[in-house]
Design brief:
Blueprint: H1 2-72, H2 83-105, H3 108-127, H4 132-154
Helix pairs in contact: 1-2, 1-3, 2-3, 3-4
Length: 155
């Protein structure tokens, strides 16, 4: 009977060892699977945030271009109630909202560059454009600085 007992104990030890190893392998595989799923979710979240940032960036650029046109279409003399100041007010309001969204979605240096660009556009809209030759390079420089900051934040 000792031989049968040894065989039974050996068999039981083999089952326990096999079960333990199987548990460890399954546990490790489950952890790896959970980690891979978390990484996929994080990647999807980052891609979604990048798409949202790009969408708002495009909107800001579109509204800034409209504000640029409004500034250059500014009549010498205008009064409240005319079409130009109404259009200018609406455009600048949209630009302010677009800039505010950049403040929410981008780092501070991107918003600071956008803010400088918006302030110069706002001055051009409401105070007029003294010289096209002076304003174009200034706006180009501010826009380029903003776009460089935004590009850096997207990478």
């Amino acid at each position: 009977m000792d031989g049968q007992l040894v065989a039974a104990v050996t068999s039981l030890a083999g089952v326990v060892l096999g079960g333990g190893l199987s548990y460890l392998v399954q546990h490790a595989a489950q952890r790896m699977s959970e980690r891979a799923e978390r990484q996929r979710q994080e990647q999807a979240r980052l891609e979604g945030r990048r798409a949202e940032r790009l969408s708002h960036l495009e909107h800001f650029i579109t509204v800034a271009a409209a504000a640029d046109r409004v500034a250059f279409e500014r009549p010498g003399d205008w009064t409240t109630g005319e079409p130009w100041p109404t259009t200018a007010q609406e455009t600048m309001q949209r630009l302010w909202v677009a800039e505010s969204m950049l403040q929410v979605l981008y780092p501070a240096e991107v918003h600071a560059a956008a803010r400088a660009y918006v302030r110069r556009l706002n001055a051009a809209v409401w105070q007029g454009v003294p010289s096209l030759e002076d304003l174009y390079p200034e706006l180009d420089e501010l826009r380029d600085a903003f776009l460089a900051a935004a590009r850096g934040a997207l990478d």
